[in-house]
Structures are given as structure tokens and as C-alpha cells.
Design a protein that fits this description.
Elements lengths: L1 H14 L4 H13 L3 H14 L5 H12 L3 H18 L2 H14 L1
Helix pairs in contact: 1-2, 2-3, 3-4, 4-5, 4-6, 5-6
Amino acid sequence: MASNRIEQLKSFLEDDPKDSFTRFALALEYQKLDDLEASIGLFNEIIADEPDYVGVYYHLGGIYEKLGDLEKAARIYTTGIDVAVKINDHHAGKELREALMEIE
């Protein structure tokens, strides 16, 4: 089932390789399969192309937490908080602050 979703998302990216929503969905699918390297790569691509895509920071920080790199997770969460403030996304900011507080 997951491989079908991955293939479908990849086909969407063939039409629009820079579509952040599709890359985000694909990164989440890889994360579910524990292919963290692929997930990290996609999340970082989104950040490079569209740094205000605030949802990326929560999930990317969580991956680094899972990998035991709490310093990197904290940096990602902090950057995400700054983005959330910038774009006035109170919900995302709250989730990111809570994630950051859990690892401090």
C-alpha cells in the first residue's frame, strides 16, 4: 500500500518537481517506512526552496530526535519557531515550542 502511494507521489513530482506539498507528502511516506535518509533529503529540499513551509520543521526535528541528534533537532525546531512567528502561524509555533521544550 505504501509503495503505491510513493509511486503515485513520485509520478506527481515528474509533472512538477518543485511542488512542496507533494515532496512533503513523499517525505512523510518515507518517514513511515523508516527511510529517514530519503525523508531528510526531501525535507531539506523543501526548506531550501520554500523556507516558510513551516510543517517541515516539526517533522525534520522529530527525525533528528529519533536519530539521537538533539542539538540538530533543537536547531531545526528553533528555526521553525522563527518561521512560524514570521508567517503568523500560532498553531505551528506552539507545536514547535512544545517539541523543543521536551528535548531541553
